[in-house]
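Standup notes
- DV: blocked on the single-chain target, sequence here:
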Amino acid sequence: MTMFLTEMLAQEIVDRTMAILPYNINVMDQEGKIIGSGDRKRILTKHEVASEVLRRKEAVEIGRADMDSWNGVKEGINLPIVFQGEVVGVVGITGDPNDTRGYGQLVKMTTEMIIEQAFLQKQLQLDERIKEEFVHQLISGNHLDDHLFYEKAKSLQVDLAVPRVVIVVKSNSHEMAQNRKLELYLSKLIEDDDLIATIYTGELVIIKKVYEKDRRWERERTLQTVQMWISQLHKMDSSIKMAVGRVAAVEKLHQSFTEAKETLGVGEKLVPEQKLLLFDDFSIYVFISKLANEIETNPLAELVQRLKHEDELGDLKKTLHVYIKENGKASNTANELFIHRNSLQYRLEKIKEITGKDPRNYKELFELYLSLMMDLFCYNEN
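- DV (later): unblocked, structure below
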């Protein structure tokens, strides 16, 4: 227990106690050495009476008549500091025992309360570190059969049998204090069996317990909760977005994390204003994004590259986007672009001439759409 009575904590006890009492306070460790004092010259010196208190495990008073019997000791009262049934140090009040005696138990109780608070704070920090390590282990999928993994789950009271889903939370804020505030706020919103931690990229990860009915995920129930979180967090940070992977057993949660992470990246490009993104809604685009960046020579991606090369003002690319959005309906596309239908036909013909693909042919329009998506998701413009 001596680790909890550090020099820093001892000095905190002294400073807080002397702020309300007109006497000098000394705090001694289990060796009888002064580690906190209002008289800084006495720090790290031996306190003989403290050694006696530690031996007897009871208070010892030193009056003026007793001072000659002790080396370098001043009159006062010295009391044992007890924490979890163990004497971990001594607290002393310098002054005539007749004056200081009435403060003895008050100082002792205050000291023990401060130590108890420090211990609880350390326990909370330890639990926080264990939780972070546990979340990292789950989203990486590493060492899930390790004995320590199950020990962490037990200490965190996590039921490994229940299905869960990974949610990635992203804020545009790069301030650690703001992100920490968001994490603390979210910690109050999530359920007891949910887990939350900040990962190395600065994003928050929530591993949420989900409910099932007839072995099917009650998706709407989960999404209502997530939407509520977003609404609450927007009061603090309007840039908040959340991406949700698929439900998985504990050994597959790393896949759910990857899905949520990739959905976030794709969704930010496709629908930058959308705040809640589901892998189920973006799975085809996640697939196209992977394809775009894994194939070195991609003839589909080259279609839009040709178009961009010939289309300096970007009119043809914009026309293609709108034509696809309007499901190939010429009248709607012309109205959306504020051009005549003949001008639209000219642009569509020009796209065909440059790319070799006719947008008015559904199969070839699909190829052009894939090319647009690959161009959008490609990390390397070259």
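- Follow-up: Residues 104-140 form the longest helix (37 residues).
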